[in-house]
Amino acid sequence: MQLRRSGRLAEYGALLYLQLHGLHRIARNYTTRLGEIDLVMLDRRRHTLVFVEVRYRRNIEYGTPAETVTHAKRTRIRQAAKHFTKSHRIYHFPSIRFDVVSISRPNYRPHIHWIRNAF
Predict the structure, then answer these.
(1) How large is the average pLDDT for residues 63-70?
(2) Which is nearest to 57 in space by CA: 70, 68, 41, 42?
(3) Residue 25 belongs to what H/E stretch?
(4) All domains of the chain, ordered by start, with CATH?
(5) How would DSSP label each residue in 34-99?
(6) How far apart are CA 70 and CA 91, in angstroms?
(7) Mean per-residue pLDDT over the chain, rounded
(8) Whole-model pTM?
(9) Residue 7: C-alpha distances to residues 1, 33, 38, 113, 118 (Å)
(10) CA 19 to CA 117: how far, in whole Å?
């Protein structure tokens, strides 16, 4: 239960962070049988649809949150993104991008790292 709560808070923090940096929310927790996408955002300046994976770890003693995005996870995100673009033709843009927002709390202070074009 605590892990889910931490995950939801991390996703909300990532959403606010990305909105402060000019992205606009289209969907949150987009789920298909193929996989899940934490955030679907629009970068209007670059005419780009952005699929965002949010990863959280309390500390980075055993690696950063971004390092937990495995090949299998990337594959599921790509499949879900393909489903999204086919199902929501209104969001047809010339380019798409896959980002990772890595959130940790070393020394109890939030640290957010946004990786554009992560994969």
Answers:
(1) 88
(2) 68
(3) strand 24-31
(4) 2-115 (3.40.1350.10)
(5) S-EEEEEEEEGGGTEEEEEEEEEES--TT--GGGG--HHHHHHHHHHHHHHHHH-GGG--SEEEEE
(6) 27
(7) 90
(8) 0.88
(9) 10, 21, 10, 16, 20
(10) 17
